[in-house]
Design brief:
Blueprint (H helix, E strand, L loop, with lengths): L1 E4 L1 H7 L2 H16 L3 E2 L4 E5 L4 E10 L4 E10 L2 H4 L6 E8 L6 E6 H20 L6 E5 L3 H13 L4 E5 L3 H15 L2 E4 L3 H5 L4 E4 L18 E4 L12 H6 L1 E4 L2 H7 L1 H8 L8 E4 H6 L12 E4 L4 H18 L3 E3 L3
Parallel strand pairs: 1-7, 8-9, 8-11, 9-10, 11-12, 12-15, 13-14, 13-15
Antiparallel strand pairs: 1-16, 2-4, 3-4, 4-5, 5-6, 6-7
Helix pairs in contact: 2-4, 2-12, 4-5, 4-12
Length: 329
């Protein structure tokens, strides 16, 4: 029997605090060599400006084996209004037998694990007294980013910038009602950056979304929105001024235009990437040293994030009786 978990099922069984914790465990195992996480296989569907990624992963101590299929179609919000930009599905297998255990919606898993990873990175790298957030983007991933940051820091104010003002206003209103945090919609990107302790990018922009020269000392940046080699959300000045950390060095230097472009132009070198997140989790590398450090965490997304979160969702679904069991025979 295979357990089918819909988005509704996942909303009932997952909470962001538990996802942060399971990701911390997954990255600890990754740093200790107890995971298998091949670099993502991807292809472009140029006719429709789409992208497909295939992300397998195995986490030994969690006993989790999964494969995620994810698509990113930037035109969906405007051309296909009923469809989101990012869609995904995840298959969870028994690592001992290979048997399929569960098929689940990957969209919510992706949003939850991405937000939770931002929370984990901020827990390790941001100043403990960080209170204000500037966020670029107002979609579902922006929501989970804020929920995760709320778990690790005492956030009192969030400044939102999105080119679609109505979407930003809706996001601000809904998140204020959900969290009690004050939200302000910004008219310019500079307003979202210059007074923020934590800056988050979860946009679909192909070009830098703010002026890195406006970052004040002590800021932490979580960059999640773009992972294509020829595109970026961060400008040269932001990257140059920052201590840079990544989820996986090989993947980031192969996929992240935020890093590739300034490396190719000579603004930074590959050595500007100081450590992987797993190395920070186990304490083998240092993160923030001084309160004045500007720290940057760039994520391109790893299969172990989906694997750990899907495994957690499956366990919680079995415990609570959520989902639909079907036979493939």
């Amino acid at each position: 029997m295979v357990l089918i978990l819909s988005r509704s099922d996942l909303e009932h069984v997952l909470n962001i605090r538990e996802v942060i914790d399971v990701l911390e465990q997954a990255f600890k195992e990754y740093a200790m060599g107890k995971t298998i996480a091949p670099t993502r296989l991807s292809l472009l569907v140029q006719k429709y400006e789409g992208w497909l990624g295939i992300m397998p992963a195995y986490i030994e101590e969690l006993g989790a084996l999964s494969t995620k299929l994810v698509t990113v179609y930037g035109k969906n919000p405007t051309m296909n209004k009923n469809l989101p930009t990012t869609m995904a599905s995840i298959i969870l297998n028994d690592p001992e037998t290979g048997q399929a255990l569960s098929f689940m919606d990957g969209g919510l898993i992706t949003a939850m694990r991405t937000g939770a990873l931002g929370g984990l990175a901020a827990k390790i790298l941001s100043r403990k007294d960080a209170r204000t957030v500037g966020i670029f983007g107002a979609g579902i991933q922006a929501r989970t980013q804020i929920l995760a940051l709320e778990e690790v820091r005492d956030i009192t104010l969030v400044r939102v910038f999105d080119p679609f003002t109505d979407r930003a206003k809706k996001f601000a209103r809904e998140m204020n009602e959900r969290t009690g945090i004050e939200f302000q919609v910004c008219d310019s990107s500079s307003d979202a950056v210059k007074e923020s302790d934590i800056v988050v990018t979860v946009s679909t922009s192909k070009e830098p979304v703010f002026d890195g020269g406006l970052l004040r000392e002590g800021t932490h940046i979580n960059a999640f929105g773009n992972f294509k080699p020829t595109e970026r959300e961060l400008d040269d000045e932001c990257v140059r001024r920052s201590k840079v950390f990544v989820d996986q060095r090989e993947a980031a230097l192969d996929e992240a235009g935020d890093l590739i472009i300034p490396i190719e132009s000579g603004v930074i070198t590959r050595e500007h990437v100081l450590a992987e997140l797993g190395e920070l989790v186990i304490g083998s590398k240092n993160g923030r040293i001084h309160g004045s450090d500007i720290t940057l965490f760039k994520s391109v997304g790893l299969g172990i994030q989906d694997c750990a979160t899907a495994s957690l969702a499956y366990r919680r679904a079995l415990e609570t009786g959520r989902g639909t069991q079907i036979s493939l025979d």
